[in-house]
UniProtKB/TrEMBL annotation, chains A, B, C, D, E, F:
Enzyme Commission code: 2.3.1.30
Pathway(s) where this gene product acts: Amino-acid biosynthesis; L-cysteine biosynthesis; L-cysteine from L-serine: step 1/2
Keyword set includes Ribosomal protein: no
Domain of life the protein comes from: Bacteria
GO BP terms in the entry: cysteine biosynthetic process from serine
PROSITE patterns (UniProt xref): HEXAPEP_TRANSFERASES (PS00101)
InterPro entries noted in UniProt: Hexapep (IPR001451), Hexapep_transf_CS (IPR018357), LbH_SAT (IPR045304), Ser_AcTrfase_N (IPR010493), Ser_AcTrfase_N_sf (IPR042122), Ser_O-AcTrfase (IPR005881), Serine_acetyltransferase (IPR053376), Trimer_LpxA-like_sf (IPR011004)
Protein name: Serine acetyltransferase
Catalytic activity: L-serine + acetyl-CoA = O-acetyl-L-serine + CoA
UniProt source species: Hallerella succinigenes
Keyword vocabulary terms for this entry: Acyltransferase, Amino-acid biosynthesis, Repeat, Transferase
One Pfam short name: SATase_N
GO molecular function: serine O-acetyltransferase activity
Amino acid sequence: MSNKETTKDSTKELFSVLVKEALTLSNSEPLLKSVLDELIVFRQSFAEVLAMSLSRKLASSLLSRSQLEILFLSTYKENPSIVEDATADLCATMDRDPACKSYLEPLLFFKGYQAIQAYRIAHVLWKDERFFLAEMLQSLISQKFAVDIHPAAKIGRGIFLDHATGLVVGETARIGNNVSILHGVTLGGTGNETGDRHPKISDGVMIGAHAQLLGNIHIGKGAKVGAGAVVLEDVPPHVTVAGVPAVKVGRPENALPSLEMNQNFTRDTNSKPAK
Amino acid sequence: MSNKETTKDSTKELFSVLVKEALTLSNSEPLLKSVLDELIVFRQSFAEVLAMSLSRKLASSLLSRSQLEILFLSTYKENPSIVEDATADLCATMDRDPACKSYLEPLLFFKGYQAIQAYRIAHVLWKDERFFLAEMLQSLISQKFAVDIHPAAKIGRGIFLDHATGLVVGETARIGNNVSILHGVTLGGTGNETGDRHPKISDGVMIGAHAQLLGNIHIGKGAKVGAGAVVLEDVPPHVTVAGVPAVKVGRPENALPSLEMNQNFTRDTNSKPAK
Amino acid sequence: MSNKETTKDSTKELFSVLVKEALTLSNSEPLLKSVLDELIVFRQSFAEVLAMSLSRKLASSLLSRSQLEILFLSTYKENPSIVEDATADLCATMDRDPACKSYLEPLLFFKGYQAIQAYRIAHVLWKDERFFLAEMLQSLISQKFAVDIHPAAKIGRGIFLDHATGLVVGETARIGNNVSILHGVTLGGTGNETGDRHPKISDGVMIGAHAQLLGNIHIGKGAKVGAGAVVLEDVPPHVTVAGVPAVKVGRPENALPSLEMNQNFTRDTNSKPAK
Amino acid sequence: MSNKETTKDSTKELFSVLVKEALTLSNSEPLLKSVLDELIVFRQSFAEVLAMSLSRKLASSLLSRSQLEILFLSTYKENPSIVEDATADLCATMDRDPACKSYLEPLLFFKGYQAIQAYRIAHVLWKDERFFLAEMLQSLISQKFAVDIHPAAKIGRGIFLDHATGLVVGETARIGNNVSILHGVTLGGTGNETGDRHPKISDGVMIGAHAQLLGNIHIGKGAKVGAGAVVLEDVPPHVTVAGVPAVKVGRPENALPSLEMNQNFTRDTNSKPAK
Amino acid sequence: MSNKETTKDSTKELFSVLVKEALTLSNSEPLLKSVLDELIVFRQSFAEVLAMSLSRKLASSLLSRSQLEILFLSTYKENPSIVEDATADLCATMDRDPACKSYLEPLLFFKGYQAIQAYRIAHVLWKDERFFLAEMLQSLISQKFAVDIHPAAKIGRGIFLDHATGLVVGETARIGNNVSILHGVTLGGTGNETGDRHPKISDGVMIGAHAQLLGNIHIGKGAKVGAGAVVLEDVPPHVTVAGVPAVKVGRPENALPSLEMNQNFTRDTNSKPAK
Amino acid sequence: MSNKETTKDSTKELFSVLVKEALTLSNSEPLLKSVLDELIVFRQSFAEVLAMSLSRKLASSLLSRSQLEILFLSTYKENPSIVEDATADLCATMDRDPACKSYLEPLLFFKGYQAIQAYRIAHVLWKDERFFLAEMLQSLISQKFAVDIHPAAKIGRGIFLDHATGLVVGETARIGNNVSILHGVTLGGTGNETGDRHPKISDGVMIGAHAQLLGNIHIGKGAKVGAGAVVLEDVPPHVTVAGVPAVKVGRPENALPSLEMNQNFTRDTNSKPAK
């Protein structure tokens, strides 16, 4: 399914790959040795790497780097599953982004990857009823990465957010596993009433750039939403929709279009889903 | 019209509510006590709270936190009406955003709210013919909040900017009172000639996510622009438009769709405006 | 073609104009004297001005202001042609943006201008096979300016990026000379395969706000892409396209629509290219 | 007694003098306008000036500028007498230092003045049994100003610490009113036993540079300690001591040698105290 | 020998005491919780506590906090004995300083303690022939703590530097174990020739405030140097010297005057050393 | 006179030696490459090196790094002779300090060297009647380096300040050429009257650690002041004084004791000055 090195199946393996990449890179680019040492080489686990790296990005006048670092470290300690989510997301990104050549790149450079990992912390805080702190984190993510994910939203693993600028995910949105979402996408609400009012995205869905999905609608497994679509109604599984408002235009070539990352919807018109 | 606590009718009351919220929050979340004390509890007016909070967000290598703080404080002192605008905007946000549970949230966390308050300062500077300084502020807002509002634009009060990322408002644009605008919206120009070339938005209008409104067009009172619409012509009052390019698709359910925040336009097809 | 002061034909002249503007401005706005002295008046060349100004904007926990300053200065020294590109871009911006009244404004305030100059540095690093460092720069640009240009993309001179928030330019994209691009535009790929997979934009093209151009398609010389269009196929020279998906709707009024900056496409229906 | 402008008798008057000095200075030295505005002109009381100015000097990785500012402001509010002490110290410094030409100089520049005002805060914290916080402040003062005053020490008002580098004042030391102390002076203990073990300095005493006063000894009113003296025994009132160990060498020319600041002790041999 | 809690005999025990002290303190002084968490509670060893704390104090434009942290951590890893030295010094300080009530105080607040631990790092670098880096550290220590210890000097363990401001220790100086040194002391050279030219201090010596010891002289075991003395010749064991130049004035009351910390030398005249 | 590499006779040569040292050092200690590049290798003159290096050390909340850098660069431009003084001081330090092995060390690490170069700037400002700014610089020097030199003092070239902590030089003091001064020294005043009241130090004088020189006294050419001396009267040329108060104890072995750096005064008793 991927012509790259098979994705690591454990966080531990991933960590040792990152250290190797960092050491190799330090040799060829001495300018970066000190930051790679600090963020990767001198760390003792992938969780520590994440905590250090995210806290440097999100530090602000509201919460200092040290306060964030401690908050993240303790959250990871008590919630090891979100570190595994982070591993799955990193592997998904490596698999699906043809411009990505090392695990270090998304980890250190992709604001989509960083935003979703920070959201995972905020989501834990939200579940612990530390609502205000969770919203503060949401605010920092929105200001630093231009990605606005409500901490109450529920998001699976193996998520790839490409480019990410402008992504909005509302309070009652739900995203399954192995979903790929381009930049400028909205999973938005319709109306000022509280209650379940945001989209539900099933496993394997691919959502093209600048697509606007609005309301408590259901996007079926393996569906594909074309770039620039405005989706206001349910989308059945393995169907491609496009247009303003969006209508069915065909079926994705692949059972899981999120792995393929093909934003073009014109060629889907007569296709059938591959196994 | 709102099932939340009635909006405060004065800046002074709002300030005392903020202090109470901050004190309550400090108790439940000690991590935030020091920043809440500094930004809210130890201040003496809502104007001071705004000046402190905005200057921390916008500080940069061009203008330091202290320089901004002084600039904002003195601008508020001589232009008390923009502090009242800020009060109205905060109440509007609290009223219309179902995910918002306290006044502190938009004040401290919503970049739409913060961007528009900083624009209000820049607008005063522009009117005082301090053009370059006003543009510097515009630039800081654009870089920190990804919101680009020209300081010469004219904007009323009771404005709610939801999510806000990517909003663009041009030099000769005009926005009335009680307007709600989602993220990714453009009030843009058409052409490289100077002169009146941007949209005019009337009271009570609701503009959905990623709508592009271009040229010196007039959007009538209580109109609604669907998400993803590209609007190139005038829109009459109490009409819903959608599509690329946008056409009339119905009428909003409500006389002031900005209060309702319903981005869905399919159900508007046969509806009549409620009084 | 432009009713403003004729664009300077050399980097040296531009530099002396900038110094004059800075001195005039320091007089009328003493608050800015110190930053203008530092960034403009005390510098000895336009290259130095660029290096100082960009490094202040892009400084982060990954690369310090000083590290960036040195990197930029040495890159400019060995690649003087990208300083000339920067001159051409600054003149293009001044010419085409009616809201822009001095050369200092785009230089210091426009994140589109700043992003493309930083990209030019990253592109040199990429050609020198310093891939990771180039990607780090791309990441800084994306986080600070919300503009995501892959360092391998090839971009001509005389480029004007208006507002810029959310622009995405992929790895194998190519942009000619004298092109104007609005905010929210994507030059994106289609699929997870490596290889030539992004749009090619010819000279003089104008791309409206939030247009999505996807795949290895060719946009002909002097073509115009309407705001909000989703373009999935080739566009012939001197043709206007619009809609989702985009279709031909007419011809631009002008041979080089990028100079005119008219995003409206409805009036192009029956027009013929001038000149 | 002083050929300078009569010292202000109230904190309020002093504050208005400081504002006037700052405004005059801003005119002649525009480089300093912004810092003078921030620290003096835009403040509303002398207490606020002190809190702002000291917190900027003492900010560190242990306590941030904001944390210190809030701590100082609230301490001044509840202990107005230490603001009056600060007024008296400023007037004393102005009176006795011939190189000092404005009240702004000691306020902003003299680390002796700043150290003693910070000590006054620490002393209040100590009396409130916030021992650790008081010691943290002592540590910050020692690291920033090279002045080490234990927060439990008791110090009167009208104190002038000239140059100040290296001053050490121990836990059970006591200093009266109108005392002048040069740099390098120690009021130190003798032994590792807790208990009353440091010098007691009466009103009007002058202690020359690098004098070492050790143990629970009593220095009488109007006494003078020569530069470089090592004092291990009581000194009677109106007596000059000098040498290692110190012996009586004469009597000060003046009843209050602290006002005269004459470190020379050779001419005191036969003199009698003036009234 | 000490009426305080018996000194911990292992670094591990010390670390757990520090954590307990930090937790207790966080409760009574919430303002400090975040810094205590970061520096103590969330660390995993005393070495890590030292590295974090020292790097925050010494960070500068020459070496960043992160660079120092990494340098210190790796030095401690490869030289565990200097961590044990740090334990011994902390216990010595606790034992001999009557004003010191917890292990946290010297660790976080005493610049003498911090300076000597930073010197221990520099000394390892010097022995590894990283001379310039060692001198850079010496320079940082001198600027931040006003303590100037040459990295080539050799210093034992159980050292207590009280107040510390102005201490100077030259390149070929040697200090034994269990020595106590007050502020303002110089172990200096005589002349511009390279070679062995600084004092050698034996075990158990106590050197009073501002004493100047110059040249390749030997201070015998258990000797005491009075405050303000200028010592230019050898001092035999268990002898007290004082004066300018220093002469023998008696014998310390105690075999190890460094434990007693009595700077007074007048009472030593007829005394005999206690066992 | 010196057994080291002959001192460079021009600032230009010195600059090229510094660049060579920096390049060599960058190779052996990659951790320092970035700071050495920034401060030395990428600079174009010794004046620029000084301005960059000093401004980084002295930056504070009163004057930013950039403000200082610009101030220093412009002062050097208009007063090239103080750059030559800085060259002479650097060579003097290299010559007389046996622990100093490269020109980079005093330049980057010795606070005595840095303090005197910053004083030279302040002195120019004082002569230009920018008194307050000069005093602000004096204050920064005192707080960062623990060296307090009044900007009105007059100081020659070829000055070596060893260790430097605690040095105080008063308003009307004068220091000739080729003088060496140890730490803790005071050139202080006697009394609160304005007027000429501080010591005058002739060429070639050596002043030992912690010596206190007080009043308008004259120290003759080639004289030597012993460590810890308190000097209250004139000292003839080529004489050694010591003690409290200081008396003549002999003659320096060398015509210019400042070159020899011998603080010991006991061996001077019967010696004659060498030619």
